[in-house]
UniProtKB/TrEMBL annotation:
Database matches in SUPFAM superfamilies: P-loop containing nucleoside triphosphate hydrolases
InterPro entries cross-referenced by the UniProt entry: AAA+_ATPase, ABC_AA/LPS_Transport, ABC_transporter-like_ATP-bd, BCA_ABC_TP_C, P-loop_NTPase
GO MF term (any one): ATP hydrolysis activity
Organism: Pseudothioclava arenosa
Domain of life: Bacteria
A GO-annotated cellular component: plasma membrane
Record domain ABC transporter: where: 21-270
Protein's UniProt name: ABC transporter ATP-binding protein
Keyword terms of this UniProt record: ATP-binding, Nucleotide-binding, Transport
CDD domains named in the record: ABC_Mj1267_LivG_branched
Keyword Nucleotide-binding: yes
Length: 273
């Protein structure tokens, strides 16, 4: 295991801490398809770690391994100094890992507020019976606390004016922001974002970039994001993993990977041996 106490300073003067998660020799197969082939990298406390690569490179699959949704065929996931055992996705959520999806996964008929509240489910201590005796058992007080947390996130992401709106009526860019809000409602220590800016116009992208940076700044949230827009990756990320055909072809600060010949070839669609 790597040293948990070391770290580095970013170009913009942020302190990045020790290793929070380490992926060791991860291979993931779906029948005959090898989505991930023997990939190792680490994620450090407080950093914004990007995963980039052409379509079908295995990026979403990797995020699913990190989130615990997929169990790798080979390899190990280490989390905060211990090997993570196989566990159900909700257990991983309780460990402080929250995510957004490449295809938005919200409840269209429910309000923005209620959608974000679902992000707190893993935090709710009182079970069904307590909810039945709502007021007497303290479930009411607990609900107030959850609401207060959620309202704070709503303010932070500047979506007060749509809090009662059914999500299905929102434009795409705002839906993505609500998804981010729901992930933040779980107060994650690692936030996973699968193409948070895909399909957005320039203005929406700028907003989303600002929020990702603000979240990192305000809560120190370690963030792993998949992104296609190289400009965004260069602006946002501290270190970048580059994937191509399930393999890792680059890993380092954005400036370094941008000048890596394998990365340039992959993006220009140069044939592989
Ligand atoms: N559940 C699955 N069952 C079978 N094959 C899968 C599954 N999920 C992904 N794959 C395959 O694994 C490979 C990697 O897919 P993945 O979705 O991880 O790529 P990606 O880098 O996220 O691509 P994109 O940029 O298009 O989102 C692809 O060949 C894909 O078809
Ligand atoms: Mg994907």
């Amino acid at each position: 295991m790597n040293d948990m106490t070391d770290g580095y300073m970013t170009a913009d003067g942020r302190k990045i801490g020790g290793v929070v998660m380490e992926l060791k020799n991860i291979t993931l197969k779906f029948g005959g398809v090898t989505a991930i082939s023997d990939i190792s990298f680490d994620i450090r406390e407080g950093e914004i770690r990007a995963i980039i690569g052409p379509n079908g490179a295995g990026k979403s699959s990797m995020l699913n391994v990190i989130s615990g949704f997929y169990i790798p065929t080979e390899g190990e996931v280490w989390y905060r100094g211990a090997r993570r055992p196989q566990m159900r996705p909700y257990k991983v959520a309780q460990m402080g890992i929250a995510r957004t999806f490449q295809n938005i996964a919200l409840f269209d008929g429910m309000s923005v507020l209620d959608n974000i509240m679902t992000g707190r489910l893993t935090k709710m201590k009182k079970g069904l019976f307590a909810q039945a005796g709502w007021w007497f058992t303290g479930a009411a007080k607990e609900e107030d606390e959850h609401r207060a947390k959620v309202e704070k996130i709503i303010d932070f992401l500047e979506i007060q004016n749509i809090r009662k709106t059914p999500v299905g009526r929102l434009p795409y860019g705002l839906k993505k922001r609500v998804e981010l809000a729901r992930a933040l409602a779980a107060e994650p220590s690692i936030l996973l974002l699968d193409e948070p800016m895909a399909g957005m116009n320039v203005e929406e992208k700028e907003d989303m970039c600002r929020f990702i940076l603000d979240v990192n700044d305000e809560f120190g949230t370690t963030t792993v994001l998949i992104e296609h827009d190289m400009g965004v990756v260069m602006d946002l990320s501290d270190r970048v993993v580059v994937m191509d055909y399930g393999r890792k072809i680059g890993d380092g600060p954005p400036d370094e990977v941008r000048n890596n010949q394998d990365v340039i070839d992959a993006y220009l669609g140069v044939a592989h041996d």
